[in-house]
Amino acid sequence: MNQIRLLFGVCAGLSLPDSFAQTIPLEPVPFTEYVAQATRREIGDTPVVVQGPLRLSIGELNAKLDRVLSFCQATTAACDTEITQFAKAVAQILKQQHAPIDKSAVQLTVRSAEYVKHAQEVLGPEGPGLQRKPLAEGLMVLAVLDTPRAVRPLDNRDLGKLRLQQDQLFELGAKNVAAGLKPLSEAAKPAGSGQIGYLGPNFLEPARVALIDQWEWLARAQNGQLVIAIPTTDMVIYVSESTPTALDALRTLSRKLGAQSQNPLAPNTLLRWTPPGWETVR
User: Fold this and answer.
1) Which residues have C-beta within 8 Å of that of residue 153, sequence separation ≥ 6?
2) Distance CA 264, CA 216 (A)
3) Segment 137-163, tens digit of pLDDT
4) How many of the other CB atoms lie within 10 Å of CB of 167?
5) Which conformational region is residue 186 in: left (phi greater than 0), alpha (psi within -120 to 50 degrees), or beta?
6) CA atoms in the 13 A half-sphere facing the CB of 265
7) pTM, entire model
């Protein structure tokens, strides 16, 4: 089974009058049924079955509604539009299930190991394996298909569609990530003493972390010192020092940005660049 989870957060929609938004139930059980009905209207004949609170099966797909409900509870005026966007994203994924994959849409992203583990568990013990590789302690690189309406993880079945081996898939994803970003020498400014540099907001910036060789330029420009944090799914911040003061400042800002974002990634983790790869800073 595939899993539907809008990996990069919910999309902010147009505001509706509060009186209308309040007709949407915001308790897990009735909310799940409400979203199920909205999804049925959008996708037509594909069966939509409530599996439990905030859990739907949609044909061969599993859908998790945790983040949609969290968005609706925080932004009731935009809830109906958000549910509509979710239903349309489901319809788009169903349409793409058996369609050829556009190789230019293959991307990489970085997610916590716990997140990827949970996503794999949702697919079940007999389900297809998600295409992922370790990045650093607690972090994974995940191969995904980036479409206009949604982003979904790629799995073993997609390797067959693409006629690629796993290493080739990740090479393709890395190539596409690099093509979608400015060179690091243009996008990043070396951080001076007491400064914190940043990249983003851009969905692809955390994926750049998977391109280890790209960061050599910035490390050299900072006298060999480069420590980064990935507080959210669209931002990377960094310093040029490894002093306790600099690391504490980086960690504090990362946690603050993660707490303020609807899409935190790894706000508590600091990574030091080395030529072989990233090392976790204790």
Assistant:
1) 3, 7, 119, 130, 131, 132, 142, 143, 144, 145
2) 26
3) 999 999 999 877 667 889 998 999 899
4) 9
5) alpha
6) 25
7) 0.69
